[in-house]
Amino acid sequence: MLRSCAAPLRSLGALRGPRGGACPPLCEPRPALRSFSSEKVIYKDFSIPNPSWSKDLRLLFDQFMKKCEDGSWKCLPLYKHGSLQRIQDFKTFFHDPKFTKEDVMTQTRLFTSSFEEGLGFEHAMFYNDVEKRTVCLFQGGLYLEGMPGFLHGGAIATMIDSTLGMSALIAGGIVMTANLNINFKRPIPLCSVVVINSQVDKVEGRKIFVSGNVQSADEKTLHSEATGLFIQLDPDKSLT
Ligand SMILES: CCCCC/C=C\C/C=C\CCCCCCCC(=O)SCCNC(=O)CCNC(=O)[C@H](O)C(C)(C)COP(=O)(O)OP(=O)(O)OC[C@H]1O[C@@H](n2cnc3c(N)ncnc32)[C@H](O)[C@@H]1OP(=O)(O)O
């Protein structure tokens, strides 16, 4: 039987955005499954709390939602509006049907959203435009195990890449990771909650330099430090 990371929630009705309603509109639904035939898009919001979220993750999420009230922070919907547009732009300019055919594309899923609730990458991202910072609240589930009881380094790298990448994406549009360096300093226990911080340090032409770290929810443990180089894609260059 599958175990969930969190004790069952007493009431989902307790999950409220700062304006008293459920999380949207600050945290808008993201389509988990996307369709490139434009006939059907199935929406599922992965960033709003679900029963697998631990008390720590819920608490941090609520704290960040509170910070969103004055507009200084935004809860990032990964696919809607800007982000969705970036994905569409990517498809328009860089997707090569030679490699992934239309019928396959209708079945794809974003890696970090492809696990059953609580077993994979439970996370929510927030962005501060003034500070150019992205913060990801992340609880890695049971299927992300590496060494027994701890998260796989690849799973940590995935979320670091996504968080630093989000900072770069907001700064530079359609980007891809060219380089990612990670120092793994302390292992992350499965199902624990960590905070991934990232900021854009420098933009040089098409190069966007981003750095970040991973800390425990109580900020007492520094789990990892990372730097990344993201390159704005050139529409005149083929990717393949
Ligand atoms: C980033 C995504 C944001 C994620 C946000 C999360 C959710 C959003 C929702 C959905 C999106 C999900 C996507 C998540 C994916 C996460 C990101 C990735 O993991 S991308 C996959 C891994 N990366 C790749 O596969 C890229 C492979 N590489 C390439 O295709 C190319 O090398 C390139 C990166 C496109 C660059 O090629 P290009 O021809 O355009 O550039 P140049 O080679 O001319 O280089 C330009 C410039 O940069 C310097 N450069 C390039 N690479 C490096 C390097 N590794 N180290 C140092 N410098 C490098 C190069 O020297 C040039 O410099 P200069 O102009 O000064 O000469």
Automatic annotation (TrEMBL):
It is an enzyme of class 3 (hydrolase). Its main location: membrane. It catalyses: dodecanoyl-CoA + H2O = dodecanoate + CoA + H(+); tetradecanoyl-CoA + H2O = tetradecanoate + CoA + H(+); hexadecanoyl-CoA + H2O = hexadecanoate + CoA + H(+); (5Z,8Z,11Z,14Z)-eicosatetraenoyl-CoA + H2O = (5Z,8Z,11Z,14Z)-eicosatetraenoate + CoA + H(+). Pfam families: 4HBT (PF03061). Belongs to the THEM4/THEM5 thioesterase family. One of its GO terms (cellular component) is mitochondrial intermembrane space. It is a peripheral membrane protein. One of its GO terms (biological process) is fatty acid metabolic process. Keywords: Apoptosis, Cell membrane, Cell projection, Cytoplasm, Fatty acid metabolism, Hydrolase, Lipid metabolism, Membrane, Mitochondrion, Mitochondrion inner membrane, Transit peptide. This is Acyl-coenzyme A thioesterase THEM4. It is found in: Cell projection, Ruffle membrane; Cytoplasm; Mitochondrion inner membrane; Mitochondrion intermembrane space. InterPro entries: HotDog_dom_sf, THEM4/THEM5_acyl-CoA_thioest, Thioestr_dom. Transmembrane segments: none annotated. Residues 149-221 form the Thioesterase domain. Its EC number is 3.1.2.2. It comes from the Eukaryota. The gene is THEM4. One of its GO terms (molecular function) is long-chain fatty acyl-CoA hydrolase activity.
